Please model this.
Amino acid sequence: MTERKIVVPGEVVAKGDYLPGEWTEKRGDEIVSIRYGLAEEANRLVKVIPLSGVYIPRRGNVIIGKVENITFNGWILDIGTAGTAFLSLMEVPRYVNKDALEEVMEIGDVAVVKVVGVNRRGVDLSIKLRGLGKIDEGIIIKVNPNKVPRVIGKEGSMIKIIKDETGCNITVGQNGYIWIKGDSIEKELVAKEAILFVSDKSFITGLTEELKKWFENNKK
Amino acid sequence: MAAKTTRPDGRKPNEIREIKAQVGIIPNADGSAMFSTGDTIAIAAVYGPRKMHPQHQQNPEKSVLRCNYNMNSFSVSERIRPGPSRRSTEISKITEWALEPVLMLEKYPSTVIDVFINIIQADAGTRCAGINAASMALAHAGIPMKNLVSSISVGKIDKQLVVDVTKEEEDWEEGEGATDIPVSISGDGKITHLQLDGKINKEQLIEAVEMAKEACEKIHEIQKKALKESVK
Amino acid sequence: MESPRITRERVKAYLAEGKRFDGRKPEEFREISIETGISNKAEGSARVKIGKTEVIVGVKLEVSAPYPDSPDKGNLMTTAELLPLSSERISSGKPGFDSIEIGRIIDRGIRESGFINFEKLCIKKGEKVWSVFIDIYSINDDGNMLDAAGIGAIVALTEAKMPKYNEKEGKVVSGEWTEDKLPIEKKVPLSITVHKIGKKFLVDPTREEEDVSETRMTTGSYDGTIASIQKGEKESISIEELKEILDLSEKVRNEVFKKIEKYIK
Model:
């Protein structure tokens, strides 16, 4: 298990013939970090992978949000960011009567949604595609959004191990909210523990092997 | 040359008290830290960037930094009635000014970054301990920053300049009495906060600030270490 | 975000099988850890952690005039502050109802139980008495702040030493203490809050469980005597349910008491 270098804001990450990548700044001939994170260098490009910080919505992200309010033409969701996230009734797969918005989703409901637009006003959402829509049962857990790529794994390999071992349906939102639905309480709890395990140890290498070992130890 | 006054606790003039620093002490917060020097203990929590309430105080060009400094009622010998005071309101603003120069607030327009500082035990230098804790907490929270900020109180007891004053030194009455100079310095050596209370000449003030800079470099290393060690 | 609607359904389903999200039984408390002397300027102070919930409590004593209707007794004032640093849900400003309620419930339990011997806090009848100030601060809110605050208060009071008092000048000597402890009795009032979710009861909820709690009852008692009760939130309970809650409170109180016994001698 090797660990990459942790850097803090203002710390010099590299000196000399390098290019400043994400979350770094060039000062003279030094590349300096402007975030608390892990420094990485590839092909002379130095970047910092944040260890913390809010989720920044990007078009195409699949996330999980909670209905906070209903307007005349849609739903306002809390997606864990400062701005507003809006789901228009035009972005629902079937026709919705303007007077029947509550029948689709009520305040307090959670849903898997897709980010279709990010602008100064806020974030625009959609539930038009398969796999999106209101969540009817299960548990929602939250992890640090910066750990989501690790929880999912390369091409979904990490989350697949957890799904296979527990038999649970798991949807990982890019905003750190994760929906787990299993056919027993024990399985849901094991899936939750496994996800938290991966999220905690997210920055070590060889994590896939560690996860497999974890499942073996927890099989009793 | 300034006459040598011995410090009550026997420290050398440029010696800082024992420092403890730790990050991640408040699980609910986006970032949090504890910073103590001698008997002065401060904790800080950062929430944000998040929605700004009231909305009319939002800034469409950048995030608003909002600091709140509060001393616990039992942090001092004579109980402080809970609630804000003029002093805590002033220190809250000073803290904002001390930290803002390093924060890259344009990245999160129309939001607020809340920093809450709480003093658990006080033995002078509380605003500086608060700024040190807040600086670590902001980095821990993932706020983009050009540098960390470090802070220390330099004092003049009679004619002697000393670093990291205690309450006893703050209350010094002999000779020229006590002068208190809290200073905050960002990682690039610039002064982000400077206050003075007492009497001093220009030359000694510059000397005091240079002593503060040296002390802040040591504090900066401790803050860095605490952040790096928090990752298990 | 506050717990979504589906969480309540899951919590109820788990409880029906006697289970909770973190694997505890409904009558089980999370790990309690206690530290004393967290401020050397306080007469007594404590830090209490229950799971991830953390509170700090300090006791300060001042000399003041007694209340007109109790000229030979000391005073008690308990204040709680739910600090914004402990949760993203708390904003700055005047204490909200939650803070006020915690202060009042803890105060009631301590006052009514006779834990503090107020007569021994009289310095000069009708003129000078000791006033006891208990100040509670939240540091991290992950549910059950009330019980954590209650434990913190009795530990801090048990730790508390009397400040030095200058009789001639009628003033407290700042920063100096005697070896005498604050006069307390053996009747230790311990508050336990029971929550109702669906048809089941549980104690020591996490914040997630607290979000879906339908009603709660805090009982402060010592040695089988009930000194204070507060039923809060909106749902109603039957008399049968009240009996169940009282039985559960008593059982849990005894178990928690054993866990914290060494801090309250």
Observations:
- The first helix of chain B runs from residue 86 to 99.
- The beta strands of chain B are 19-23, 31-37, 40-51, 64-71, 111-121, 149-157, 160-163, 178-186, 191-194.
- Helices of chain B lie at 86-99, 126-140, 167-170, 202-229.
